[in-house]
Design brief:
With 606 residues, the protein is of the alpha+beta class. Among the domains are: 174 residues, Beta Barrel (Lipocalin); 226 residues, Metallo-beta-lactamase, Chain A.
């Protein structure tokens, strides 16, 4: 890629001006990009017919290349992928119509935001121009992300964070949910030069810089709609089957390079394929068949995650409103959900207990009533550590003289703790403080209540993380709390010594997806509070499910060849996901996760 003088100046602006995005008042030198536009070159980034294994000129790292080589286009037939929106980068380089307009304060006429509508996937984007900060790391991500803008010279510069995992090109090259984007819009009469700088610590070795041109649109105004609802594209595919190619087994590896006479080493991409000196490498030993084939499989030891930790780690408990009557509390280990209303709060999980007093104080700011119910999604300490204090601070008036009150040893004393019977069994066996052990338990199916003017269902998910996992669905608020079944920070802690299994974990994620619905174009609708990490929706649940199904398939394939655990670990079956979820130290490492997957699959086969 050649870097013109103009692009060099734009890169200088990126390096010197990023920290100030959106921090200043509107500048008179700013350009006006209002109106309808379309790309002069209709790129094929978003075209489903783009060829596989055509990654040359893109700075993929090992994880990015392996992810792309494993990607099977049939995965697009899944309900969660059919209508997924595009990221700004994918949208603006992918063709279609775009419309920009200003949003101003009706009294002062100060510029608040620049709005953008993209025809393809019908995405409405907001670029905030009023100096507001970006949300915390535990806030929800969206396909279009959170954007702030600033006028720089005769251009508009935009900085975007909080994007979902999305595509760079529709042939499997992906950007992670850790990517950030800097964009420059330079207007020249009736044309706009668009420059994007995509940075991704998970899948790119260095920033990806691209340009395109937009011109005024004179297209049919009735052609702006591109609505999408998912449908039954493939029948009889089990919902735990996620199409993928095993490492080293992509059947289309040579198709593009053979058809276009491109050396395979160049087609596999990487930062070096962007530079002129790469041509010399195509004639050396690195271009040999053996050397190129080695790039299809992982090498070296596991990687640690490069993802941003969404926990603030500041000793405070932070409250994030979710939707309806539900909020998420972050800061004391596992996430805590709180439902409020006319009755006492219903709390899902109690955190690690290190900040229990601050958790109680945060709940009291949401409701002046005592906590009435606590639901534990598992027996793990990150979700039950605050039970004793939260129980003592609460009160369940429904137990005074009620029909079933005699079954509870603590009837009328503190909040009632609800969980699956196996949670009570595990906590009793561990000799946990009696006042923190659930007393209202159930054995199978669901435990349901109508509380704070909405139905609340607690569903048993057998043999997922443990043998006592549950998820909680607030039906009117349309919020699901998953406990450790879903986290955005690590591979799932499959506790095989207490009944956990990879197949049960995947089944639980599919059960969650059976209860979710998106609002528009694969986004919004049901919101999901994970056991750890940021607020999610259906898309993140499906991405986590897909990842685990792919890893399961790789381990199962090796078990069929009688591979040992050490051989499975040496094969780095998680390599394309390690930079996002992996850990090489601490209480739950990547190797521990692989050991749990291997052991649970071997146990199921016996």
């Amino acid at each position: 890629m050649k870097c013109t003088y103009a692009v060099s100046l734009l890169l200088a602006a990126v390096l010197t001006g990023t920290a100030a995005f959106g921090q200043g008042p509107e500048q008179s030198s700013g350009i006006d990009i209002s109106g309808a536009w379309f790309n002069t070159l209709q790129n094929t980034d978003s075209n489903a017919t783009i060829q596989l294994v055509a990654y040359g000129g893109y700075p993929l790292n090992e994880a990015g290349r392996l992810y792309a080589l494993s990607w099977n286009p049939s995965r697009n037939a899944s309900p969660q992928q059919q209508c997924a929106q595009y990221s700004p980068h994918f949208l603006l380089h992918g063709g279609g119509n775009y419309r920009f307009w200003e949003e101003r304060d009706p009294h002062t006429q100060r510029l608040i935001a620049i709005k953008m509508y993209g025809q393809i996937t019908e995405g409405t984007r907001t670029i905030w121009m009023d100096g507001r900060p970006h949300p915390p790391a535990y806030a929800q991500h969206t396909f279009l992300g959170f954007s702030t803008g600033q006028y720089v010279g005769n251009g508009l510069t935009v900085y975007t964070t909080h994007m979902k995992r999305n595509w760079i090109k529709a042939n499997g090259m992906t950007q992670s949910d850790q990517a950030t984007l800097v964009e420059h819009f330079l207007r020249h009469g009736d044309s706009i030069t668009y420059v994007s700088v995509l940075s991704d610590p998970v899948y790119l070795a260095e920033p990806l810089i691209r340009t395109t041109e937009m011109v005024r649109s004179v297209r049919n105004p009735d052609a702006w709609l591109y609505a999408c609802d998912d449908g039954e594209l493939l029948l009889n595919r089990a919902n735990d089957q996620v199409p993928n190619y095993l490492f080293g087994q992509n059947p289309f590896l040579h198709e593009y390079s053979d058809q276009h006479q491109v050396p395979l080493l160049g087609a596999l991409g990487g930062a070096e394929t962007m530079r002129p000196e790469f041509m010399a490498k195509l004639k050396g030993p690195a271009a040999s068949e053996a050397a190129v084939t080695s790039l299809e499989v992982p090498s070296g030891p596991p990687h640690a995650s490069r993802a941003l930790d969404p926990d603030p780690h500041d000793g405070e408990v932070h409250v994030l409103p979710v939707q309806g009557s539900v909020s998420m509390l972050v800061g004391d280990g596992g996430n805590i959900a709180v439902q409020v209303g006319d009755q006492g709060p219903l709390v899902v999980d109690s955190g690690a207990g290190q900040l229990a007093d601050k958790v109680i104080a945060a709940i009291r700011r949401l409701s002046d009533k005592p906590i009435q119910f606590i639901v534990n999604t598992s027996f793990h300490a990150a979700h039950t550590g605050g039970n004793v204090k939260l129980h003592a601070s609460g009160e369940d008036p429904s137990l005074f003289g009620s029909f079933f009150s005699a079954q509870f040893a603590d009837a009328g004393r503190g909040a009632t703790i609800i969980a699956h019977q196996n949670v009570q069994n595990r906590m009793n066996a561990a000799r946990s403080p009696s006042s923190g052990i659930p007393t209202d338990t159930f054995l199978e199916g669901r435990r349901r209540k109508y509380h704070n003017d909405e139905g609340v269902e607690v569903f048993y998910e057998p043999n997922a993380i443990t043998d006592g996992d549950t998820i909680v669905h607030f039906r009117r608020s349309d919020v699901i709390v998953t406990g450790e079944i879903l986290t955005t920070t690590q591979y799932p802690f499959i506790d095989i010594n207490h009944g956990g299994s990879i197949r049960g974990e995947i089944a639980a994620l599919n059960n969650i997806l059976g209860k979710t619905i998106y609002k528009h174009e694969g986004e919004g609708g049901t919101l999901v509070i994970p056991g750890r990490g940021r607020l999610c929706d259906e898309y993140e649940v499906s991405e986590y499910r897909d990842m685990l199904a792919i890893i399961r398939d790789r381990v199962e394939a090796m078990i069929l060849t009688n591979a040992s655990l050490e051989q499975v670990k040496a094969a780095r079956v998680t390599a394309d996901f390690d930079d996002r979820y992996g850990t090489t130290s601490g209480p739950w490492t990547t190797n521990m996760f692989v050991e749990a997957v291997y052991a649970s699959l071997k146990r199921a086969d016996q």
